[in-house]
Amino acid sequence: MPDVRLASPQGRWILLTTVLGSSMALLDSTVVNVALPRIGRDLDADMAALQWTVNAYMVTLAGLILLGGALGDRFGRRKVFVVGVVWLAVASLLCGIAPNEQVLIAARALQGVGGALLTPGSLALIQASFHPDDRGRAVGLWSGFGGIGAAVGPFVGGWLVDGPGWRWVFLLNVPLALLCVPVALRHVPESGDQRAHGRFDVLGAVLGAVALALVTYALIEAGEGGAVAAVSAVAGVAAAVAFVVVERRRAEPMMPPDIFASRQFTAVNLVTLCVYAALGGFFFLAALQLQVVVGYSALAAGTALLPTTVLMLLLSARSGELADRIGPRVPLTVGPLLCAAGMLLMLRVGPGASYPADVLPALVVLGLGMVTLVAPLTATVLGSVDVARAGLASGINNAAARAAGLVAVAALPLLAGMGEEAYRTPGAFDAAFGKAMGWCAGALVVGALVAVAVVRRPPAGCKRPECLRHGGVAAPPLEGEPVRKRLP
Q1: What number is the average pLDDT over the span 220-245?
Q2: Which superkingdom (predicted)?
Q3: Alpha helix positions (H), 256-389
Q4: Predicted pLDDT of residue 483
């Protein structure tokens, strides 16, 4: 049984290590958005290159995150976590010195591999190291500090972009890794899962990542037309079908198809796809809208988006407690509708927009919607499957959210009619942004309809999330084993 106490020096070192590691991955999924206009100008990149700057990271992260957790269970969570930190730092260095958009995109894909290795390990190390009496508080502190990192990330990213330059948004990971790795090796105990056995589902992971990459490529290139986009779309669908076939035939698949036999689990993942597609598209385009159309600096744009994260950090725990009392159906219906209203309010954000009168109200409504739905969504995922599969269910839900976000970043510019040079033309970008917000709001309404039609209160004694103070916007908080049972 793990016996490290939170008040001990080793306990504090473990907490520091996991916070640093998860912050590296979190920064790379959120901070880059505010740097996109400057990256485009400096590298003379078109809109498609900016989409790939975001999506290359998300493709490998979403496709490999379940495999990363399995590798940690088998070979040692600390070992895989440290490899992920080093991998992410080296890839970040490559991003920081990239001479052109092609090298930057390739390095971003490598960053996603590092993120997939370290992200599941951050929480797993806490759960495997701390005494059960301290584990809940340790997870709460980890989640809270992660939320603070998510809040200050866009601010720091904007300051770096306006100051020393966008390359430092990536280079920031190098000193974080230099601090994190020696602390992990010295103070964090190794752990694994003795039940882990059998062969890894590498083929399933590769097919999943390839399907995401090909579909994303087809959507980004569809605006130009041509046979390449069509072939990529067909190949992506074929890879997705092959992924399903492989998962059905594997003895120990990465994503067991029978987990979707739970109607509740399937419904909540459909809600997740709708919600995080909208959120992923929103945060990608909003950072551009504020800079390209409204005229904000990178620092001002990053700071302007803080209210959503701050609201989640302050109120998510209370939202989770409310959902425990009334059940998830109402929060998972009302939350997406509030988010949709916030995005429709963003239609007022154009040239000369006032922050207090136009931007802030939209972000507050959006943030309240996110507060309402994130903790109940995670709790419902955990409560819709057997105890032994809670970690797997959470990983699938997290991967689904990230996949939805990357598909939205690829599809929204196409649906909204953004050309290759749209971010260089304020008028054209503003018109397309309005259409994109309509699409995002529509996806959220679909998610609310699924929730009201299918989601029901989980049975008594099911799971509730430990990561309640959650400030990230790229995906729901990733929950592993063991998790606490809901109080009766």
Answers
A1: 88
A2: Bacteria
A3: 263-292, 298-304, 306-326, 329-345, 360-383
A4: 38
